[in-house]
Amino acid sequence: SLVDDPSGDDSLSLEEQDRERQRLFGILERLVKWENSNNPDVLAAARAEIDRCFPDGPPPILDPFGGGGAIPLEAQRLGLTALSGDLNPVAVLIQKAMIEIPPRFAGRPPVHADIDTDLTTWQRAQGLAADVEAYGQWMRDEAERRIGHLYPDATGPNGEKLTPIAWIWARTVESPDPTWNGHVPLVASWTLSNKKGKPKVWIEPVINRATQTITYEIRTGGEPSHERTVDRGNGTCIATGSAIPGDYIKAQSRSGLMGQQLIAVVGEGQSGRGYYTPSDRDSEAAHSGEPPWKPEGRNPEKLTGGTVFIYGLDEWWKLFTPRQLTALTTFSDLLSEVRERVIADAAAS
């Protein structure tokens, strides 16, 4: 604790100590309320108590395994010098964005030339936040211009325009049953949504035995008509009920015979989230994309505990679809481009 309990002050009677203790508790009670996170009066009261206990300045706060940075961030809010780190590079990146970069630009105006605001003074990280929003919007708009055609909008069951936010895929393998000449899906669950008080939304596999093909439709209400077709690495042919051993699945994947099929799309519109059956356009777009670059090199055998290497996904590029690689490459290029924009705007501001 940075603030001592009043019991250590011999100049106070027991009643005075108790009153002082309750006063300090009152500061804590106001401080922990979410709505007071940025209340300057509440923060000033807490900082005043810390300064009272440390006339020569409080000690720095060190969190060697800071994770998401909650402790050093709260220390900064109380006016303390915070030092933090972590073994996980993702955690370090989060900490830099939360506790290292914002203080460097505190109180400064944005450098972007087209900030739409009535503010004349910029407090704390307001200017930095405005820049992040403006340059982020530019990246988003530019990405849509370059690769938006790979992510077509859709029309929901009620005619509402939906923006896709997720694509549900199924891995497929050739059925080992000679009576079925085609690929079958490996699906752990057919349920898409099972929210309390709402009808369950699930995927219905439609098996056409004449053409030996499987298509998928979205159902609302009731229960899925099929059980899962993969469990603990072993599968079941949904068309015939034949077992698909795990070793067979791995061999199919290592031989490049494992496929993938788009079985549902999640979209978002004005009325909320919706689920719809993929159209031919959705499937074509999902399999499109010509990435100008792909990450070379072999994966570590124990990547994700070794669960991808044994399926032949032994190189980095194999972990992504062409569309995913195109999107990742596009955003990587945009990061370099936006950096040049920021530098140019900062020099001109």
From TrEMBL:
Composition-biased stretches (Basic and acidic residues): 279-301
InterPro entries: SAM-dependent_MTases_sf
Location of region: Disordered: 273-301
Name of the protein in question: DUF1156 domain-containing protein
Source organism of this protein record: marine metagenome
